[in-house]
Amino acid sequence: MKNAFSVFASSVNRFASSPAATGAAFVIVLVWAMFGPISHYSNNWQLIINTGTTIVTFLMVFVLNNAQSRDTNAINAKLDTLILAIEHADNRLVGLERLPVTEAEAITADIESVGIREVSADAT
Predict the structure, then answer these.
(1) What mean pLDDT comes out for the span 18-30?
(2) 21 and 15 Cβ atoms separated by less than 8 Å
(3) What pLDDT does residue 102 have?
(4) CA–CA distance, 75 with 60 (Å, rounded to integer)
(5) First to last CA, the chain
(6) Within 10 A of 6 (CB to CB), how many other CB atoms are there?
(7) With contact defined as beta carbons under 8 Å apart, do 26 and 19 qualify?
(8) pLDDT score of 81
(9) Which ranges of the chain does DSSP label H, i.e. alpha helix?
(10) Could you tell me if 29 and 49 are in contact, meaning their C-beta atoms sit under 8 angstroms apart?
(11) Residue 95 φ/ψ, nearest 5 degrees
(12) Overall average pLDDT of the 38-64 stretch
């Protein structure tokens, strides 16, 4: 089930970011707008677009979040590999996103303080 959703989410993500999807959305809104005068801008006319956009937006949040999460995990794995491959790299950064917030903030603060000291030393 999890793999099927990932495949589905990837397909939807590719389509949603395509020119065809933008064109389809434009055509749908254009057709809806053309029916406004015909239906005398009725409540049903407004309800159709409001309901449709709400449903699509609600579902797209989950699909796009899945795609973004997978992309983020892949980028983190690649960065971890690069950190481990560099001899003098700070290996505390590997898996930083999986650490408890307090530990991650402490490591980040330590790295930032070292960076500030190095910049100050270079300036003098």
Answers:
(1) 95
(2) yes
(3) 94
(4) 22
(5) 60
(6) 14
(7) no
(8) 95
(9) 2-16, 19-38, 43-85, 101-123
(10) yes
(11) 75, 20
(12) 93
What is the C-alpha separation between 80 and 102, in angstroms, rounded? 20
The whole-number pLDDT of residue 23 equals 96
Give the pTM: 0.66
Q: What's the CA gap between 8 and 95, in Å, rounded?
A: 28
Contact 106, 92 (CB under 8 A): no
CA distance linking residue 80 with residue 94, whole number of Å: 5
Structure confidence at residue 89 (pLDDT):
86
Q: Which residue has the tokens 């481990």?
A: 84
Q: CA–CA distance from 19 to each of 13, 16, 23, 64, 78 (Å)?
A: 12, 8, 6, 17, 30
pLDDT class for 4, splitting at 50, 70, 90?
confident
Question: Phi first, then psi: what are they for 89, rounded to 5°?
Answer: -75, 155
Residue 82, pLDDT > 80, answer yes
Measured from the Cβ of residue 67, the count of other Cβ atoms closer than 10 Å reads 19
CB–CB of 83/93 below 8 Å? yes
Separation in Å, CA 20 to CA 17, 25, 27, 74: 8, 9, 10, 27
